[in-house]
Amino acid sequence: MAKELTLIALDDLQQAAECLKVMAHPARLRMVEILMQGKYPVHEIARLCELPDAQACDHLRLLKGHGLLDSERQGRVVLYRIANPRLPKLLRCIRSTCEAD
Amino acid sequence: MAKELTLIALDDLQQAAECLKVMAHPARLRMVEILMQGKYPVHEIARLCELPDAQACDHLRLLKGHGLLDSERQGRVVLYRIANPRLPKLLRCIRSTCEAD
DNA sequence: TTGACATATCGTAACCTTGCGATATATTGA
DNA sequence: TCAATATATCGCAAGGTTACGATATGTCAA
User: Fold this and answer.
1) pLDDT score at A3
2) 8 Å CB contact of B86 and A94
């Protein structure tokens, strides 16, 4: 059983694992879910996630830092939105996989 | 902007996050990738992942413990296989999402 | 300019994960 | 039974992640 397989490059796997680690938090999944419905300001996201604003900020920063979200200031508020268009599909895929555990 | 959204139950999000955390490791992604091609014994998986057998064992145990993999002993070796049929699709989805970062 | 609101950043302690080495268990054939 | 092979389990130290509270920065309207 020494046949060799064609495997994904380790770099790609590391990148994928990094991306998953960023998603692997209930609050952050919730944020992605919320932002699938449109742009929202931090305090609104925090409220929907039932988190203190500062914590929501931290999570949003992490997601943005990995290119999953983006943000734009509009006056006093900062609106976050999904930056990677494939994210919604991934979230749906995650749901259908994990629910069937 | 106080309209309410229909959100996924927190329990489901926690379960999904847990599942993602388990997948969020390059070696474990590699293992899923390998097992998408069939059943393999621990030492072979370890070799393909370039890991010591004991570490491969640990990772496999984690994946199995979360219902993602399953195993059967055949004589001296233990063959691991994918237990959740949706896993391959998830891995492909992850790849296409994360590559486009 | 000041106060109020919105967001961002940071330090810290508690907790979790990882890699590693040591050891234990299981199976087979000599 | 004994040695060899295969797998599993465990303890530990190092490093990473989290929630939390404190504080800083940015924006606007009075």
Assistant:
1) 59
2) no
